[in-house]
Each structure stands twice: as C-alpha cells, then as structure tokens.
C-alpha cells in the first residue's frame, strides 16, 4: 500500500495546538490500493496512535476541558457525573424525516453525557450535516453549527469505547449503522459526530457511542444524491441538504441537565 510521508490529521492537530485556526474534524479513510482515499488525495502515513479509553470515565467521572477555539454556541459544560448507564433512545428530527438512535450509555458514558446535554440545550437545532463521503468511506458528518467542520461547543474530552483494529490491519471496520464521534486528534471530541451508512475502514481512533436504529433510508437517500466534491472526489457538502431541526432524548430518559 502506498504510504505518503505526511499525516494530514496529525498536521491539523499540531496546528491547532499552536493556536492557529481550529482544525476541521476530518475523518481519514485508508482505502485499498486500487482506490484513492475518499477524503484526501493522500492517506495518512500511519494511523495516529489510538488513545485509551478515558480513565476518568472508568472512575465514573468525565472531564470536559476548554477547547483551543471559541465556542460557536456556548451552552456551558455537561455534568461531570454521567447520568446514563444503559441504552438511551434519541431522535434526530430532520427535514427528510426522523432518524432513530440508540446511545450506548454503558460503553461510552461521557460521550452520551455530552451528546444528551447538547441536545437538551438545543445546540444541534437548525444545523445542517455539512459533510458526505461516498467513496470507500461512507459517512455523513453532522453536529457543527457553522457547517464548516471547525465548529464546536467550547469544550473537549477524551475518546472512549474505541474499536479494535481488524486482524493484520491498522484500521477497524466501522459497520453500517454505527454512530461515532469525529475529532481532530486525540482528546478533541466536541459536538461533531458521524453516521455510517455503509461499512467503512478507518483508524480505530473514533469513539463509537451508539447505533442508528431507524431512518437509514434517509441517509442512503442523501448519499445517492451525491456531494459537491468540495474536498475532493466524493467528499464535500451533500447536494441533498440534511438539516437537524431538533434532537430529542426519549421519554423518561430525558434529563434536563
């Protein structure tokens, strides 16, 4: 497999640490040799080292630290003690219909804590899913109020529930229906997340915090319409707009945090 000399994701993260413009939360796929990587003209030279699950999460507390850039929409910080310890049902109400989610509060308590907190604060309301990839990487990325890939809630936190790499590979398969967090490097989780509409290979560096339980046809409809290719062939803003009108946590499980 061709291995270029630079790692774009690492460079973005390094620039962010130096105080430059906040790095977009990009996902980098490692495609088979016969295909080009769908999100960049070059794939990473090596997958960034996977950060271990947050030790604070194992102790029952979450650490949310100020991010390097300003909050797009400052809604405060989630509680340090995660309120969810089992599956939490959530609904993305979109202009194309509802998408059902099952959030795994047991495996990814801090991520579910943050996602639910932002939902109860209406952080996601009236935001557009800003990125679609249609090559080897099949994801739709959402959760940025600026729709640029660089927006966030003003805090960051560590990865948890990272998948294991596939045997003999530096990548893991993120299966169709997976719900995971986008990031710009270790410890930079914020509000951006992605939904997988087709099995995809990625470095095992992205927190899996749930699954899509209904509405996959909506994601497939958006994918079929294609992308504007702003980031390269098969990578850019979706031509068929997917707007999150509301994100709700179901019934008695909803907590006004």
Summarize the SSE layout with pairings.
Layout: H1 8-17, H2 55-58, E1 65-66, E2 87-94, E3 97-104, H3 109-120, E4 127-128, E5 131-134, E6 138-142, E7 155-156, E8 172-174, E9 178-181, E10 193-196, E11 200-202, E12 208-214, H4 216-225, E13 235-236, E14 243-249
Antiparallel strand pairs: 1-7, 2-3, 2-14, 3-12, 4-14, 5-6, 5-13, 6-10, 8-11, 9-10, 9-12
Biggest β-sheet strands, sense, barrel = 10 strands, antiparallel
Order of helices and strands: HHEEEHEEEEEEEEEHEE
What's the CATH topology label? Cyclophilin
> What strand line-up does the widest sheet have?
4-14-2-3-12-9-10-6-5-13
CATH class label: Mainly Beta
Can you tell me the overall shape? Answer: globular
What value does the average pLDDT take? Answer: 81
Helix content: 10-25%
Global Rg: 17 Å
Task: Please identify the structural class as seen in this structure.
Answer: alpha+beta
Quote the beta fraction: 15-25%
Beginning-to-end CA distance, first to last residue: 48 Å
> How many β-strands, per DSSP?
14
Summarize the structure.
The chain has one domain: Cyclophilin-like (Cyclophilin, Beta Barrel). Helix content is 14%, strand content 24%.
Please characterize this protein's 3D structure.
Strand 2 and strand 3 (97-104) form a beta hairpin. The protein has a single domain (8-253), classed as Cyclophilin (Beta Barrel). The radius of gyration is 17 Å and the shape is globular. The chain is 14% helix and 24% strand. The N and C termini lie far apart (48 Å). A 10-stranded antiparallel β-sheet has the order 4-14-2-3-12-9-10-6-5-13, covered by helices on one side. It has a two-stranded antiparallel ribbon with strand order 1-7. The protein is an alpha+beta fold. It contains 4 helices and 14 strands. The longest helix has 12 residues, at 109-120.
